[in-house]
Amino acid sequence: MAYPGSPSSPGAPDTRPKVLAIVALAAAIVGLLIAFIPFFGWLSAPVLLAALVMAIIGLAVKSQGGKGFSISALIISVLGGITAIVVTIVATLFTTISTIETIDDGMTDPLAPGGGEPVASAEPIQVVETAFGQDTLDPGLWWYVVIVDNPNPDAVFEFGEITTEAVDASGTILDSSTDYITMLPGQVAVSGSFYEVGANEIIALEVIGPDPAEAVSEPSTGAGTFSVGELAATGDDYVTEVSGTVTGEFPVDQEFVGVTVVARDPGGAIIGGTSTYIERLPADGGSARFEAIFFTPLPADTVYEAYPFL
Fold first, then answer.
1. Number of domains into which the chain is organized
2. What angle in degrees, to the nearest 10, is found between the helix axes of 41-60 and 67-106?
3. Does a structural domain hold residue 14?
C-alpha cells in the first residue's frame, strides 16, 4: 500500500535587508514629483540620481533584498529625469514666447505712419532752400542744410524720409544722407555732413522728400505747434554755442524734440547748420531750453534761426 509523500517544506523567507531598495523607491517618487514643477526640475536631479544609484546597488549586490523595489526605483528615476528635462524645455519655451509677445505688443515701428488718418490729396514737400560747404578743419568733410516746407495745413509726414544727395558738376552723386523727421505744417530744417566726398567737389544738392501718400492727419503724439523764443549766441576761438527756448502747444508731453539751428551771414546766405534735441517738452504750452554747438567760431554778426521738429 502506497502512502502519499509528506508535503514539502516551504522555502525559507528572504531575510536580506530591503531598506536600501525602499529608500531608493521613495527617493525616485519624490524626485518624479519635483520634476513636474516648472523651473524647479533641477532640484529633482540630485534626488533622482541618488535613487538611481541606490537602485543599481540594490540590484547588483546579492546581499540586498527588495529587488522589486529596486527595479521600480530604477524605472521611476529614469522617467523622472526625462520628465524634468521635458518640463523645463516646455516651460522655457512658453516663457520665451510670452516675453516676445509682450515686447511686440509694447513696440511700434518707429518708421511707420502715425496714428492719424491717411490724407488722400496731400501736396508733396517743397524744398525752400539748400546750402552746403566744406569744413574749415577737414577738407574731406562737407556740411549741408536743407529747409523744406510742408504746404498741407491739415497733413503731417510722421517720420518722413528726407534724402539729401551731394552732386558734382557731371551729375554724379558723390554721397547722400537720410534724415527721418516728423514734418508738421510749415517749414522745418535738417542739417548734417557728407563724409565720403573725398577730393571731389560738390556743386549742388538734390533733395528727395517723402511720398505724399504717406501723409496722415496728425502724428501719433497728437497735433500741435512749436514756437521759438529769442536766440543768444556765445563763442570762443573754437566753438559757437547758440541757446534758446522752444514752446510747444501739444496735448501730451513731447520727448526728444529735435532742433536744427541755421546760421546766416548778414546778407542772408546760409553759412552753417547744426542740430540738438530737447529731452522733454511739457504739454499745453510748456517750454524747454536748448543749446546747439557749432564746432567753429562764427562771426559776431551771424544771424541764427531755430527749427524745432518731432
1. 2
2. 160
3. no
